[in-house]
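Recall that a protein's primary structure is simply its ordered list of amino acids. Everything else, from secondary elements to tertiary packing, is in principle encoded there. The following example makes that idea concrete.
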Amino acid sequence: YEKNSDKHINPASLTKILTAITALTYMNTDTVITVGTELNLLPKRSSLCLIKSGHSLTLYDLLTGMLVASGNDAAYTIAVNTARYVMNEDSISDKEAISYFTDLMNSVAKAIGCTDSNFTTPDGFDSEGQYTTIKDLSLICSYALKFKEIREIVSTVNKKVIFKSGENVTWSNSNKLLHPDSPYYYSEATGMKTGTTPLAGKCLIATAEFDGQTFVAIVANCESENERYSSVIKLFESFSSK
């Protein structure tokens, strides 16, 4: 089922799925990364996973902070450090690294098969010239499910993480389909990612498993929490009844 699947939309934090794919294309999950001045680039009113400059943690843990807690701070740290790793150049500025990383994101998206998207930020916050479509997001999501690490992370409900530098934090998944105490809990749900910005509205990529098959539902530009969750549940119920 699809409706307006070719219409340009603002991707919001659904972008972080592509950010994760891009990072995993070039770096190992056990790579230790130290958070730096890239946090100064964060847009106002960012969602955060509360990492601070000087914290050191693995790429896997940064991906968890980005995909579970929807941390824009983690997205920027991942982007800058992936770019410097690929370029083998630690001296480039944070802004140059972000620009290089978004070029990588767009290259990866095209390789996956996306034909009508342009990403200009690693976190998906509203930005001039940034757009995608539901159809392209479905390709990105399907490709992301090939990564065991992404499947593990997006299905995580709550996780306490101890950083390599000794700090600890507990992250809770922003996807309410996964929380048993949520009015939107859906027992067959297995992930994937929420997104909310002023221009994008409330968005959701959701995955669920029925009889060994994984189904994907994507909604965007919803006006309320109830609309985005009830919409994907309705889609899942139509899948499972066939």
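The chain has seven helices and seven strands. Strands lie at 32-34, 56-58, 158-162, 168-172, 189-197, 201-210, 213-222.
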